[in-house]
Amino acid sequence: MDIRAPVKLDKKTKNLAGRIEEGNIAIIDHRDLDEVAANSLINKKVAAVINCEMSISGRYPNLGPSMLEKAKVNIYDVIKGDLFDVLKDGDSIIIKGDKIFFEDREIATLLELTSSKISQLLAMAETNLEIELEKFIDNTLTYAHKEKDFILGKLNIPMINTVIQDKQVLVVVRGQDYRKDLSAVLPYIKEMKPILIGVDGGADALLEFGFAPDIIIGDMDSVTDRCLKVCKEIIVHAYPNGKAPGLERVQQLNLNGITFPAPGTSEDIAMLLAYEKGADLIVAVGTHSNMIDFLEKGRKGMASTFLVRLKVGSKLVDARGVSKLYHRRITAKHILWMIFAALTPIIITLSISQPVRNLLKLLMIRFRILLGI
């Protein structure tokens, strides 16, 4: 079946997801398409996805293409042609079989990633996983030595206005299943009212569920302006040399932000900040914790994350664990609702019972006689 629709292009999928519209064809340049990126395009209800890179290179079994296929979104890899040179946002194209046509001329040759093709590519990637694991471990150990200041406490933790001492903290990252994890801990958030820290796009996830983040921390490349404006405090993740490209965006919005120079990921320093400021408990939502997660982020190791988890591990709980372990306390309000729920069928039954209705009429007559009415 031919697909005809306008296109939106961006070499950064997360940027494209913020501006693409329903029914558009997404043109991306994303090697080894990850789950978070795929899910963002699915949520936008795109007509199709065309990748100018290899959606599954075979380096590791990434699951983004499988998610698109399962959601019935056609996904193609470009075999021949340079779409970023030929097309611009809003141009209408036609996908016919394995060809793209624009203004009645063929501009590219495609490979459609069908279910069988995706399975074949993932099977090949599985055979390469052991090699990647070895490289990943070597890189992790090498950089762990370089980034050991995470454990030794030589980082300068910035002064913040938010009081974290002896409070529980929820750190939200826009990682795999972050919406599901956040839904699972909603009762916990509403009752315990933890300090809410959004890591870049994770802050928008909080806003989506009706919570304004207390702190946004990250390089500011995937959080919305609206979210930045409603949060209470902004911390920009800077390079170890102090350079913070994200600070310029914050200042352009006439907002105040402080920098936190550190190696590693923004979610690492969010947890480190909570720990160093005396958090009683750190609950993590959507965070990255395994090799596939990190390979999908384009990282060759997880040194900083490994070290931070070692340091904060005594206070760190995964959101999925909280949803299984946390039981909401029963309050008087809950008891009243249970009593009401139990009485409702009894009241209804009595109201429609003829003998009961006759008895009530007799009681009313006797009551009126006694009163002389």
TrEMBL record:
Domain Thiamin pyrophosphokinase catalytic, chain residue ranges per copy: 192-233
A Pfam family of this chain: SteA-like_C
Domain SteA-like C-terminal, first and last residues per copy: 320-370
Swiss-Prot/TrEMBL keywords: Kinase, Transferase
MF-aspect GO terms: ATP binding; kinase activity; thiamine diphosphokinase activity
Signal peptide: none
Top-level division of the source organism's lineage: Bacteria
GO biological process: thiamine diphosphate biosynthetic process
This protein's name: Thiamin pyrophosphokinase
Biological source species: Clostridium aceticum
Source lineage: Bacteria, Bacillati, Bacillota, Clostridia, Eubacteriales
